[in-house]
Design goal:
The complex is a heterodimer of chains A (79) and B (172). With 79 residues, chain A is an alpha+beta fold. Chain A is built from one helix and two strands, in the order H-E-E. Chain A has a two-stranded antiparallel ribbon. Chain A is rod-shaped, with a radius of gyration of 32 Å. The termini of chain A are far apart. In chain B, 29% of the residues lie in helices and 32% in strands. In chain B, a hairpin with a 2-residue loop joins strand 7 and strand 8 (136-144). Chain B starts with a helix and ends with a helix. Classes of the chains: A alpha+beta (79), B alpha+beta (172).
């Protein structure tokens, strides 16, 4: 019986610490001075395409260009 | 397509003698597309003089990988009117030989026009630049893989160089 009483007291103490702030928020709905921040969303892998091969460009073509044998012969062509 | 061009020219040429055409060596007329490439991209076939009986020259340039061709045909006609008429006839013929063709003016020579489309069987992307310069009528046909049409800037660049070469030839 004594143990049950202690356990009940602990549960009451914990639940009180959780419930009390919610009750406080409800009471401050018209004058809320707290600053809320949007939780940061974990960012996944970020892919930035630079050229057809995902590098800085073959033969110095640069991003968005591809070195191949086309209408102008060997030259940089858009991807 | 050069055949259609020549056929149109035949009609235009009726009643004129070839002696009225500007004399000279036509072999220097076609501009080698390697002038605007890496200098080795195209191999020229032997020039065909007076194609289909018309005074002028036709040269076919084939890309070293075999997937692209540039066919330049320059006809030397009796006068500017004949050249313009030949171009009109040629364009009428090209319209039937280029599927889904889109024609637009091109700032090359006189009455420059660029026709872009597909070959009738859909196996090639085709672009034909045609223009007149004095008594000459020129067509430059670009043919490549369906997903590899010739860039329009290359068409205009080669066309302008060809136009300049014709004017230099006429002035010589």
């Amino acid at each position: 019986m004594r143990r049950f009483g202690m356990a009940l007291a602990i549960v009451a103490a914990v639940s009180g610490s959780v419930v009390t702030p919610q009750t406080a928020y409800a009471a401050q709905s018209s004058h809320d001075t707290n600053v809320y921040t949007q939780p940061a969303v974990p960012m996944g892998p970020k892919v930035q395409s630079l050229d057809c091969h995902g590098t800085t460009g073959g033969m110095g073509c640069g991003p968005g260009w591809f070195w191949r044998d086309g209408w102008r012969g060997w030259a940089c062509y858009p991807c | 397509m050069a055949g259609g061009f020549a056929a149109a020219a035949v009609l235009t040429m009726s009643g004129f003698g070839y002696a009225a055409a500007q004399p000279g060596d036509f072999s220097t007329l076609p501009v080698d597309p390697n002038l605007i490439t890496d200098s080795l991209a195209y191999n020229a076939a032997p020039a065909v003089f007076n194609p289909n009986g018309q005074p002028g020259v036709e040269t076919v340039y084939t890309h070293r990988d075999g997937s692209r061709t540039i066919t330049t045909t320059v006809l030397v006609l009796p006068d500017a009117g004949a050249a313009t008429a030949a171009l009109d006839g040629a364009r009428a013929g090209l319209a039937a030989q280029v599927a889904n063709g889109n024609s637009q003016p091109a700032a090359v020579g006189s009455g420059g026009t660029m026709l872009t489309g597909m070959s009738p069987d859909g196996s090639k992307a085709v672009t034909v630049l045609s223009f007149a310069e004095g008594n000459t009528a020129t067509t430059i046909e670009f043919a490549g893989a369906p997903k590899d049409p010739v860039p329009s800037d290359l068409v205009l660049e080669l066309g302008r160089k060809q136009d300049t070469a014709i004017r230099d030839w006429q002035a010589s």
